[in-house]
Design a protein that fits this description.
The complex is a heterodimer of chains A (324) and B (649). Chain A is of the alpha+beta class and 324 residues long. Chain A is built from eight helices and twelve strands. In chain A, 30% of the residues lie in helices and 27% in strands. The chains are: A alpha+beta (324), B alpha/beta (649). The interface between A and B is medium-sized, with 19 and 19 residues.
Chain lengths: 324, 649
């Protein structure tokens, strides 16, 4: 297939070209391109939690000789987006999300589930009916950034990113569900929290690993304990609300943070509530400590990145290729 | 020959190309599974679109993981190398470099397509090495050279006789360390294949091999021990493993003149070794080999030319009325004495026929000394016994054992034998159209540096002109870098066995990849890397043990006999011609005879191999000359009565 063929085959490249043509014909202010950064997130959220392992949050040492589950699926997703053009000053964004689960069996990772989706995100009310209709004819799903009391390009992009993020989360849930259907006894480790997995089948073998700490759950002395955890220590478990149900969570320090910042090597883990959460947290923490080897050294965040999760990302990035 | 599609399940890799590792028309990269049959030297194929096929040989391989720096592994292991493996096996890559052997179609020549990679099949090997042009068909010129073995495939590989023995290109050079049975074994195997498969339409072929060390080539008429895998290899190659049963051996005598200077002296074999004895004529033509530049100035050379043209084997009358017919060194010495006596009698004259007496004395000293320095090969006055130039037959195999000779005599043998072969081939009267000459230890006889010897000039001449004549040089050495570049450069086919890393570090091997060099440095016995004009890249091949008895095994089976005294040697050698001869009769025949006479008669008898051995031998000895009894009255000059000693006081 030549390069010219590739631009006329009805695939993602072809459709992106057609979207640009439509925008060009309708008097846009210029074409866009792939975006490398996500606009700043909304103000960090704070959530209240309730200690469930004692009255206050404390630090506990974790035994490093842990039992690692046999079959484990590691689930993650990636997203790409590009502003294809502007209608007035409203962005028309083309996005790509993909998610996959890599099954680890006998120490070897193997991709078993993969899904990808391309779509358009734009403030439809600002686009106008005719442009919206023409873009729909391209064949890519079209999502609205939602109503806005006030239009601003930066806010529109941020809202679009939230839509894209939502689509990615949905795709991750979809691949996790597909994996669960095929491997009912396997554990699933998610890159992120368990929000949205409240009714996930077999969620007693579901673990959320959070390495970005944008939402704050602790304050005061509890926060001090969490952010100054020594290496190979965890906090006691606390519960956060997730819909009608609670989710148990705790912090775990993988590597000694001294000489680095407070979040260095710090993970937060999430589990569905179980009977003996204290023993469960020790056991799971020991397992995750064992996941430090091998090190995800290729990532800038290797202090918090589990190698298998990093491999899912690498796999998805390789599958996505030079997306534009 | 058409290209068949590979099976999907035979895919072993996929071509990758990046800006830093691009695919080009001559080289590309591909990755494979970590557990794979791909290895250095494996032949692979890449199938592109529009029936485009690329064949290539793997020349390098790399493995690495996604570890960005070693320190991360240390951190993960907490500094303890013995710590347990991680929960997940780190991702690795096997990244191979392949050098293109052939693209089909040849034009337009383009970078290798980014497609799947499969291991080559037997048919692929044939195409990749461009063998289809000379392997298939009635006029096949294919000579088996070994077996390509990779990924469970065993495919025969052939050389093109037109490029091995000429006229397109010629010569074979083998490099390898000593003691690993690579060089000699390979040559024996190649010659066995050549003799088995050289097409009759291309003419007759013979081989002349110089045994330069030990007993390497002393037992090639005896069957060697072959394993099951050797026999399978011969079957794959379509060759019947047979020794060179009609091989003929030549060796000079030792200095005693009766015991042959060879390790093939076991009583069961010694009768098949023929003495190599040369006389004045054979030596004089090659005096440049024996005399160095200091010896052979223009005046001396002119005098030797005079002797050769006007004296040797001609009726020659000197100024003092003597008639000479110089055929031996002894005759020559008599001529010199006559010249010196004549000049002395003349008085003050110091020139003879424009040659100064000092030059004559110098030439005399050097020439007469040859028979001393090459004793055993060069006879003073005996009968010469030479290789039967002009009577060569198809598939004749001559072994000339020079292992026990000194360097000078070896040089003489090389030069004369090869020169004779060349002259006969030029005249088309050798008896065959192609002769393979095998010379081992080439870095000794044709060094890259050092004096420009006659032997080196002769080897250069073969290398550069031999293919037009049918004179083909199979040569071997330990260090190719130390051999004259024009000799190894003219070898159309080169083979490399296990080699020293020091040698591989020399500039001549820069074209090889590091992995190929490492493979060469660790090659097991029976494996070689072969370059041939049809192969655009060198290929690694296996070859079976040669079908002949090797030197060490031969010595164990046929231990050399100890030297015997003159009388026993004569009895043994005449006895081998006629087993019915009685020892007493031989002893009587030689009783009281001069040793030189006995040697001469023995050689003449061996050469003639007459029906009546003793009768011929006795005749060759000549009549016995009785020592006369001195007469008292003629008892010499009377003593001086007295003489006053002037220095007594």
């Amino acid at each position: 297939m030549t390069g010219v063929d590739r631009l006329n085959d009805g695939g993602p490249f072809d459709r992106a070209r057609r979207v640009r043509e439509i925008l060009s014909e309708t008097g846009t202010l210029g074409s866009g391109g792939a975006m490398t950064g996500v606009p700043p997130s909304p103000d960090n959220a704070f959530e209240d939690v309730v200690p469930v392992e004692g009255d206050v949050v404390r630090s506990r040492a974790v035994q490093t000789h842990a039992i690692i589950p046999g079959d484990v699926g590691f689930c993650d997703g990636v997203q790409r987006f590009a502003v294809e053009g502007w209608v007035g000053v409203c962005p028309v964004i083309r996005a790509h999300v993909s998610a996959a689960v890599l099954l680890r069996k006998d120490r070897l990772l193997e991709p078993v589930v993969h899904r990808a989706q391309d779509f358009i995100v734009a403030p439809l009310d600002a686009l106008g009916a005719s442009v919206t209709e023409r873009i729909r004819e391209v064949g890519l799903p079209l999502f609205d950034t939602g109503p806005a009391t006030r239009r601003h390009p930066t806010l529109d992009v941020r809202r679009a990113v939230q839509v894209i993020h939502g689509q990615r989360s949905e795709l991750e849930r979809a691949v996790a569900g597909e994996f669960r259907a095929r491997f009912s006894d396997a554990w699933i480790v998610l890159d992120g929290g368990l929000r949205g997995y409240e009714n996930f089948p077999g969620n007693d073998r579901l673990l959320g690993v959070i390495k970005s700490h944008e939402t704050q759950y602790l304050a005061g002395a509890d926060l001090n304990v969490a952010l100054t955890l020594p290496a190979e220590h965890r906090t006691t478990v606390f519960e956060r609300r997730s819909g009608d149900a609670g989710v148990h969570s705790w912090y775990l320090r993988l590597w000694d943070w001294e000489g680095h910042d407070l979040l260095y090597g710090l993970l937060r883990l999430e589990r569905q509530p179980v009977h003996d959460i204290s023993a469960e947290a020790d056991c799971v923490s020991g397992w995750i400590l064992a996941e430090r080897v091998p090190l995800a050294g290729r990532s800038r965040r290797w202090d918090r990145f589990l190698y298998p999760i990093h491999q899912v990302e690498a796999y998805l990035n390789a599958r996505t290729g030079a997306w534009a | 020959m058409g290209v068949t599609q590979p099976a999907h399940d035979s895919i072993v890799g996929r071509v990758v190309a990046t800006e830093h590792l691009p695919a080009s028309p001559h080289q590309f990269f591909f990755w494979s599974a970590t557990e794979t049959d791909v290895g250095i030297g494996a032949i692979v194929r890449v199938d592109g679109k529009r029936d485009r096929v690329v064949f290539a040989v793997v020349i390098d391989g790399k493995a690495y993981s996604d570890l960005s720096e070693p320190m991360h592994d240390v951190i993960a292991a907490h500094g303890d190398p013995a710590s347990q493996d991680g929960a997940t096996e780190r991702r690795e890559i096997r990244l191979w470099t392949a050098a293109v052997l052939r693209q089909m179609p040849e034009e337009p020549l383009q970078p290798v397509p980014l497609s799947t990679v499969t291991l080559a099949s037997s048919d692929d090997v044939k195409l990749a090495l461009r063998m289809e042009s000379y392997v298939d068909g009635e006029n096949s010129t294919a000579i088996p050279v070994g077996i390509y073995a990779a990924g469970g495939l065993r495919a025969p590989v052939y050389l093109d006789a037109d490029f091995l023995l000429g006229p397109e290109s010629a010569h074979l050079n083998i490099t390898g360390v000593s003691g690993l049975a690579t060089k000699t074994s390979a040559v024996e195997f190649f010659l066995a294949c050549l003799f088995a498969r050289f097409p009759a339409a291309k003419g007759r072929v013979a081989a002349v091999c110089f045994n330069v060390k030990g007993a390497d080539l002393c037992f090639i008429d005896q069957p060697g021990e072959l394993t099951e895998s050797d026999l399978e290899a011969y079957e794959t190659l379509g060759i019947e493993p047979r020794p060179f049963e009609s091989a003929r051996y030549f060796a000079p005598f030792k200095s005693d003149g009766v015991n042959l200077n060879t390790l093939r002296s076991h009583p069961d074999l010694i009768s098949t070794v023929e003495p190599l004895v040369w006389g004045l004529r054979e030596v004089l033509d090659y005096n440049e080999v024996l005399l160095n530049r200091d010896d052979l100035d223009a005046k001396a050379a002119a005098f030797i030319d005079f002797l050769r043209d006007r004296v040797v084997e001609k009726e020659f009358r000197d100024e003092w009325g003597n008639r000479h017919r110089v055929t031996t060194f002894a005759d020559l010495d008599r001529l010199f004495r006559a010249i010196f006596d004549g000049l002395e009698a003349q008085g003050r004259s110091d020139t003879w026929r424009t040659h100064h007496i000092a030059t004559i004395r110098k030439v005399r000293n050097r020439l007469i000394n040859i028979s001393v320095r090459c004793k055993g090969l060069v006879t003073d006055d005996g009968v010469s016994n030479d290789i039967p130039f002009g009577e060569f037959k198809d598939r004749d195999f001559y072994v000339i054992d020079v292992a026990g000779m000194d360097q000078l005599a070896q040089d003489l043998v090389f030069t004369r034998v090869v020169s004779q072969l060349r002259e006969h081939l030029e005249r088309r009267d050798l008896g065959v159209e192609h002769v393979v000459v095998f010379v081992d230890e080439l870095n000794k006889y044709a060094p890259a540096d050092g004096p420009d010897t006659y032997v080196r000039k002769m080897l250069l001449d073969i290398a550069e002109r031999g293919r037009y004549l049918g004179l083909v040089l199979f040569s071997a050495q330990q260090f190719r870098s130390q051999v004259h570049r024009r000799i190894v450069g003219n070898a159309g086919t080169s083979a490399f066995g296990r080699m020293e890393m020091d040698e591989l570090a020399t500039p001549g091997y820069q074209v090889l990849s590091p992995a190929t060099k490492i493979k060469l440095a660790t090659l097991p016995k029976g494996e070689i890397m072969v370059r041939h004009p049809h192969f655009t890249q060198p290929v690694f091949l296996r070859f079976p043990r040669p079908p002949v008895l090797g030197g060490p095994a031969g010595l164990a089976k046929f231990p050399p006999a100890a030297d015997v005294p003159m009388e026993e040697a004569v009895i043994a050698q005449l006895g081998s011609l006629d087993p019915k001869l009685e020892r007493r009769a031989i002893r009587d025949a030689i009783a009281g005879r001069a040793e030189d006479d006995v040697r001469r008669a023995l050689l003449a008898t061996r050469r003639a191999a007459p029906d009546h051995v003793l009768k011929y031998f006795s005749k060759a000895l000549g009549p016995k000359v009785q020592r006369g009894v001195a007469d008292e009255s003629r008892a010499g000059v009377a003593k001086l009565q007295s003489m006053q000693d002037p220095y007594a006081t």
